[in-house]
Amino acid sequence: MLTILATLATIFFVFVMVCSIILIRQVKKDLNKKRPTKKETFIRENATRQLTEEEATFLQPYLDDKEKITPPYQWESSLINSDVTTIKGYIEKEFTDAISYEYYYKIGNIQLFFPYNMDIGIMGFEARYQGEFITKTKILNTVEIVFTNSYAIVVKINSYDLLQASLKLPSRKQEQLNDFWQTGKIKPIRMNNIERSNETLTQLVTETSEKKPPFEILSKREKNQFETALQDRSNSGKLMTVFFVLGVIFLLALEHFQSIALVIFSIICFIFSLIASHIKRELPTEYVNHIKAEIRLNKPSYCRLFIDSNIDVYYPAYWKMFLPNNTDIPIDMQVELKTKQLLSCGEYLSISEEVKNYGAPKFVHHNIILAITGFILAILIFFFTYAGEKFDFTYQQLTAPDTTWIIDDKVSLKQSAIHSLDRVNLDLSRILCDIQNTQDIKSQHLQCDKIKGISSGNSSKITDQVSKENYHNGEISKLTLSTDYGNDIDKNQLFSSPILINNFVFLFVIFIALINTIIYIWKKAANQFRLEKIISHYQDKILEYND
Asked: Strands, DSSP E only, in 98-167?
């Protein structure tokens, strides 16, 4: 009996001890839960408001889908609470991997995650400065955030909030303005079912949609003849160049294939090249918007006027000295619809008036193509057809005295005052070949065989040109006769020879290259003179206005 009681007492004691331990642990756990963390204390002390229903809705995808959280951030599935905390400071980029270019945004020791690419609202970052990446903003940013255990999610950065980012209101407004620019009519921004069903979202979209455009379209018209005169209507020049090169090739072929067909083909190619150079491009119908707008910012280095943060127009570089940095009142502008090129601004600056008074600028596209093509062809002809040697030969033929020597014996040969480029008639019918240089018997035999072959042929007389002569004691000791091209051509035959054709083609392509180079220089000078007159005209107008 006592044994049973002792056993029961032991069991009861163990049970009480176990329950006590469990109870103590639970109490400690509850106490720890009630003790706030440093982060919770910070949130409680700096909270400015509660997360709105709409903000919670748009943040939920980033809590549900870890694929939306980009490295190096670690996905968190819940917020600590719905308190929104406002902080202010310099935003930094903390790089974790220089190779993959991964980094955190942070203020102090608080990591910031920007949903919906809200980091475009950060102010004070520059892409580069003196060759180094900027990792810290130069100005303070105000940020509203909610916390997860790992990082804070941004719900507002400066004036750019979560609803704007999630609804993509800036880009949707830009699409509305682009449509307005094209059509001249403001169309409301379309809303989806979620936006229509939520009053707050409906109001936001409606307010953005009804925001007044930064410019007023007064009228729309087609570009006039003076404005289109600024566009080069010349074609690409490819067809012109192809026909020109073909014409030159056919002329060069005449040196080897004397055929009237090649001449005809060459002439046809040059005619087609000339025709192709005068073919004009058909310009599409282009339109101009007549608008009234304030100049928010002028960037002379880019020749751009900003009439809104996302809307700018471009102007000619020589207008920059006559345009203000900004204006307080709207001014008249004529702007090309497609390119947003400024055609007139204010009372004086006008492309149309420039063309009326000083003519259109001169275009040099075809001149550049023909000049380059001509020089390239001239270089190729010079090196591949030996144009230099042929010109030298032609010059010598035209300037050297026309002397022909008839040599029929040894005495007359030695006593003749023969010079280079003279022509000699030799009778080889009774000539003998005497081999005296035993060191070069083989080559001497070859020369003898060649001479015997001539003397035993149907014609033992040859006529050739002297390319080199040697005298000894006042008498001819050695003559070198040239058998190169054209040596059977006299002065009367030269002007109908293939050499002359090559000379003509070479001079022709050089002429085309030079004349187009000269035209190019003249046109550039004329355009510069025109520009100086236009600038002087505007300066006089401004002086008159100020007086």
From this structure: 102-107, 110-113, 128-129, 132-133, 141-147, 152-157, 160-161
Residues 6+ apart with CB under 8 A from 419: 403, 466, 469
332-357 per-position pLDDT tens digit: 999 999 999 999 999 889 999 999 99
CA pseudo-torsion sign 57, 60, 62, 65 = negative
CA dist., res. 391 & res. 51, Å (int) = 92
Q: Which of 12-16, 198-202, 217-221, 391-395 has the lowest mean pLDDT?
A: 12-16
For 43, the token pair is: 């949130």
β-strand partners of 220: 289
- What's the predicted TM-score (pTM) here? 0.66
How do residues 46-83 score in pLDDT, each as one tens digit?
Answer: 788 999 988 898 899 999 998 998 888 989 988 988 89
Q: Which residue has the tokens 């020749």?
A: 303
Token duo for residue 315: 């102007």
Residue 506 and residue 495: Cα distance in Å, rounded? 15
Start-end of H helices in 278-364: 351-358
The pLDDT, as a whole number, for residue 541 is 78
Cβ(351)–Cβ(226) below 8 Å: yes
Strand runs labelled E in 360-503: 404-407, 423-427, 461-472, 475-482
Alpha-carbon distance of 172 to 190, in angstroms, equals 9
Q: Are 263 and 248 in contact (CB under 8 A)?
A: no
- Of the candidates 94, 90, 87, the one whose C-alpha atom is nearest the C-alpha of residue 138 is 90
Q: Which strand ranges, in their side-by-side order, compose the sheet holding 475-482? A: 404-407, 423-427, 461-472, 475-482
User: What are the helix (H) ranges across 49-133?
Assistant: 53-64
What whole-number distance in Å separates Cα of residue 90 and Cα of residue 106? 8
Taking the alpha carbons at both ends of the chain, their separation in whole angstroms is 130
C-alpha span between 485 and 467 (Å, rounded)? 12
